[in-house]
């Protein structure tokens, strides 16, 4: 965890109680999870949730995910909790799975971007769970926390308390829970239309979901026009401030040579790339060889590269295989942010 700082709350009993009281009085709080840090507000306080949108610079039509305690009743938040949702909750909560369900009428639509659905997740991070339990106690057992990633709209998500401070300074208090262990956002599965559909890949895979449901969820292919809007599903997303592009391993060196007048950071797995570290204009960063470690390191690496004095970031295009799907999704959206005519998301 980070050294003591006026904006940071430590994850002891006093710090967690203070954090819950921050949320209860309608203020914003950044909090840790196993995926990334969230920018939290009382999910039933319309003014507080609107402050999330304002601070992030996020369009109000983009839904936010409601985080709930392991002890709370997810049925409070939804019109109906289908059997498939109960199976997945039993199998994967607490954990990095968000379920999109029909929103209960008493839940404000500010959390769903005006839609009739709501995204629910129960994080596995022990500090997040302690916070949610403490907030539950202040809210008669219904302490949901709306919590998109704690970063400016379109920027790289934060995986440490320091990353959040780098984004917002002292504008928001931060509950410090150490580095996020998963490192990328949750898998989002839509159950609001009578069938399972993957809206965002994550640590939890479609195969794991299918093993519980007995059917493979529909996978995103750009043709599902009826899908609800969900966090992290616009074309451009997770963007660095330094221009970033993906390249096949066998063309990275050639690209670096062609751009010899630029200082280039190259991120690639050592097993997939030749000896390019000797190029005078190249800073080579060895990427992890396995998907979970790559995912955990990704956002911290992108933020570090943004602070370095490079003109361009080239990242090895990874295999188009299921185990790399979530990392490929994040890298593809980060690169797409540099197409001038594309929108960005957070």
Automatic annotation (TrEMBL):
Keywords: ATP-binding, Cytoplasm, Nucleotide-binding, Nucleotidyltransferase, Transferase, tRNA processing. The keyword Isomerase does not apply. L-threonine binds at residues 35, 67, 121, 186. One of its GO terms (biological process) is regulation of translational fidelity. Pfam families: Sua5_C (PF03481), Sua5_yciO_yrdC (PF01300). ATP binds at residues 58, 149, 157, 200, 238. GO terms for cellular component: cytoplasm. The keyword Nucleotide-binding applies. Residues 13-204 form the YrdC-like domain. Its EC number is 2.7.7.87. It is found in: Cytoplasm. Transmembrane segments: none annotated. Belongs to the SUA5 family. This is Threonylcarbamoyl-AMP synthase. It comes from Pararobbsia silviterrae.
């Amino acid at each position: 965890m980070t050294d003591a700082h006026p904006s940071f709350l430590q994850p002891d009993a006093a710090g967690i109680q203070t954090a819950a009281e921050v949320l209860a009085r309608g203020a914003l709080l950044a909090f840790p999870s196993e995926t990334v840090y969230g920018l939290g507000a009382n999910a039933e306080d319309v003014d507080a949730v609107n402050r999330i949108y304002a601070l992030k610079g996020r369009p109000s039509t983009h839904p936010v995910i409601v985080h709930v305690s392991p002890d709370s009743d997810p049925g409070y938040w939804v019109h109906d909790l289908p059997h498939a949702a109960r199976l997945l909750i039993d199998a994967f909560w607490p954990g990095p799975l968000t379920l999109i369900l029909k929103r209960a009428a008493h839940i404000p639509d500010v959390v769903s971007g005006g839609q009739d659905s709501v995204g629910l997740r129960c994080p596995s991070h022990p500090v997040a769970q302690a916070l949610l339990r403490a907030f539950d106690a202040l809210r008669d057992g219904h302490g949901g926390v709306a919590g998109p990633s704690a970063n400016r709209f379109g920027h790289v998500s934060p995986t440490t308390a320091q990353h959040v401070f780098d984004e917002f300074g002292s504008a928001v208090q931060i509950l410090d829970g150490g580095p996020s262990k998963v490192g990328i956002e949750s898998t989002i599965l839509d159950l609001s239309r009578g069938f399972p559909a993957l809206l965002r890949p994550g640590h939890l895979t479609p195969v794991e979901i299918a093993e519980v449901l007995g059917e493979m969820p529909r996978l995103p292919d750009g043709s599902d026009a009826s899908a609800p809007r969900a966090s992290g599903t616009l074309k451009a997303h997770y963007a660095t401030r330094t221009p970033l592009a993906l390249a096949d391993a066998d063309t990275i060196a050639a690209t670096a040579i062609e751009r010899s007048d630029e200082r280039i950071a190259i991120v690639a797995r050592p097993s997939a790339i030749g000896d390019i570290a000797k190029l005078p204009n190249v800073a080579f960063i060895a990427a992890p060889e396995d998907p979970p470690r790559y995912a955990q390191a990704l956002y911290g690496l992108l933020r570090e590269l943004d602070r370095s004095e490079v003109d361009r970031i080239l990242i090895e295009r990874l295999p188009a295989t299921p185990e790399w799907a979530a990392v490929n999704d994040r890298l593809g959206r980060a690169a797409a942010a540099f197409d001038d005519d594309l929108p960005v998301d957070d």
